[in-house]
């Protein structure tokens, strides 16, 4: 199966992608992994990406698209893949469409993980990270430490990352709504989208996604 996973920050895409890919025996291809692999291996695309990142600039679509194409052409992806974080905008979605058409392939499904905006803010803004190298993660509501501001595991100080502050989360959501959300309509026009509620336990969300991919 060839699947695209879409959803706002905090929807649990990475977690669900890993479970779904394992259940379906297909590789999980995430944008973050693509960048890390290409940069660490010193590929031409990785070098280009690093130049932009060092300059504090956004990596152009053509670089991200090139990395994704290279990964989808690897042998383990011949029978399918699960894309997480790509495509991120209409230009990338159109590039993916063209790539698959050239290969006489097509997407089987686009899963849209749906979470109310206030829940996204609560999930992300409530995270607290331990300053120790172990970087244990807690949540002020869902998995609170026994002592406020102190890691249960090593006694280190817990802090809130700048990226997790509410104002930053809302900015990230605004970018998602303006840039990424339009790809849902793009794929709805192709009859590929199934919306999945991402509220509940991880296993419950995975079960909903698997039911959508393999209906009775």
TrEMBL record:
<dbReference type="InterPro" id="IPR027417">
    <property type="entry name" value="P-loop_NTPase"/>
</dbReference>
<keyword id="KW-0808">Transferase</keyword>
<feature type="binding site">
    <location>
        <position position="127"/>
    </location>
    <ligand>
        <name>ATP</name>
    </ligand>
</feature>
<feature type="binding site">
    <location>
        <position position="92"/>
    </location>
    <ligand>
        <name>AMP</name>
    </ligand>
</feature>
<keyword id="KW-0545">Nucleotide biosynthesis</keyword>
<feature type="binding site">
    <location>
        <begin position="57"/>
        <end position="59"/>
    </location>
    <ligand>
        <name>AMP</name>
    </ligand>
</feature>
<feature type="binding site">
    <location>
        <begin position="85"/>
        <end position="88"/>
    </location>
    <ligand>
        <name>AMP</name>
    </ligand>
</feature>
<keyword id="KW-0963">Cytoplasm</keyword>
<dbReference type="GO" id="GO:0016301">
    <property type="term" value="F:kinase activity"/>
</dbReference>
<comment type="pathway">
    <text>Purine metabolism; AMP biosynthesis via salvage pathway; AMP from ADP: step 1/1.</text>
</comment>
<dbReference type="InterPro" id="IPR000850">
    <property type="entry name" value="Adenylat/UMP-CMP_kin"/>
</dbReference>
<protein>
    <recommendedName>
        <fullName>Adenylate kinase</fullName>
        <ecNumber>2.7.4.3</ecNumber>
    </recommendedName>
</protein>
<dbReference type="InterPro" id="IPR033690">
    <property type="entry name" value="Adenylat_kinase_CS"/>
</dbReference>
<dbReference type="InterPro" id="IPR006259">
    <property type="entry name" value="Adenyl_kin_sub"/>
</dbReference>
<feature type="domain" description="Adenylate kinase active site lid">
    <location>
        <begin position="127"/>
        <end position="163"/>
    </location>
</feature>
<feature type="binding site">
    <location>
        <begin position="10"/>
        <end position="15"/>
    </location>
    <ligand>
        <name>ATP</name>
    </ligand>
</feature>
<feature type="binding site">
    <location>
        <position position="200"/>
    </location>
    <ligand>
        <name>ATP</name>
    </ligand>
</feature>
<comment type="subunit">
    <text>Monomer.</text>
</comment>
<comment type="function">
    <text>Catalyzes the reversible transfer of the terminal phosphate group between ATP and AMP. Plays an important role in cellular energy homeostasis and in adenine nucleotide metabolism.</text>
</comment>
<comment type="similarity">
    <text>Belongs to the adenylate kinase family.</text>
</comment>
<feature type="binding site">
    <location>
        <position position="31"/>
    </location>
    <ligand>
        <name>AMP</name>
    </ligand>
</feature>
<dbReference type="InterPro" id="IPR007862">
    <property type="entry name" value="Adenylate_kinase_lid-dom"/>
</dbReference>
<feature type="binding site">
    <location>
        <position position="172"/>
    </location>
    <ligand>
        <name>AMP</name>
    </ligand>
</feature>
<dbReference type="Pfam" id="PF00406">
    <property type="entry name" value="ADK"/>
</dbReference>
<feature type="region of interest" description="NMP">
    <location>
        <begin position="30"/>
        <end position="59"/>
    </location>
</feature>
<feature type="binding site">
    <location>
        <begin position="137"/>
        <end position="138"/>
    </location>
    <ligand>
        <name>ATP</name>
    </ligand>
</feature>
<feature type="binding site">
    <location>
        <position position="36"/>
    </location>
    <ligand>
        <name>AMP</name>
    </ligand>
</feature>
<dbReference type="Pfam" id="PF05191">
    <property type="entry name" value="ADK_lid"/>
</dbReference>
<keyword id="KW-0547">Nucleotide-binding</keyword>
<keyword id="KW-0067">ATP-binding</keyword>
<keyword id="KW-0418">Kinase</keyword>
<feature type="binding site">
    <location>
        <position position="161"/>
    </location>
    <ligand>
        <name>AMP</name>
    </ligand>
</feature>
């Amino acid at each position: 199966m060839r699947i695209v996973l879409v959803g706002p920050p905090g929807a649990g895409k990475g977690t669900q992608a890993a479970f779904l890919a394992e259940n379906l025996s297909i590789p999980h291809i995430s944008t973050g992994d693509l960048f890390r692999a290409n940069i660490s291996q010193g590929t031409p695309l990785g070098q280009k990406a690093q130049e932009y990142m060092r300059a504090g600039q956004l990596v152009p679509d053509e670089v991200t698209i090139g990395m994704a194409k290279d990964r989808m052409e690897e042998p383990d992806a011949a029978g399918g893949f699960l894309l997480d974080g790509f495509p991120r905008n209409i230009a990338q979605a159109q590039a993916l469409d063209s790539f698959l058409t050239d290969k006489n392939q097509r997407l089987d499904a686009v899963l849209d993980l749906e979470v109310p905006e206030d829940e996204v803010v609560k999930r992300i803004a409530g995270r607290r990270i331990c300053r120790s190298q172990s970087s244990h993660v807690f949540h002020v509501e869902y998995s609170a430490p026994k002592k406020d501001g102190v890691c249960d595991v090593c006694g280190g100080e817990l802090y809130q990352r700048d990226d997790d502050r509410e104002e930053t989360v809302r900015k990230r959501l605004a970018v998602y709504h303006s840039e990424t959300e339009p790809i849902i309509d793009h794929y709805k026009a192709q009859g590929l989208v199934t919306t999945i509620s991402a509220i509940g336990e991880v296993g419950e969300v995975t079960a909903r996604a698997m039911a959508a991919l393999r209906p009775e």
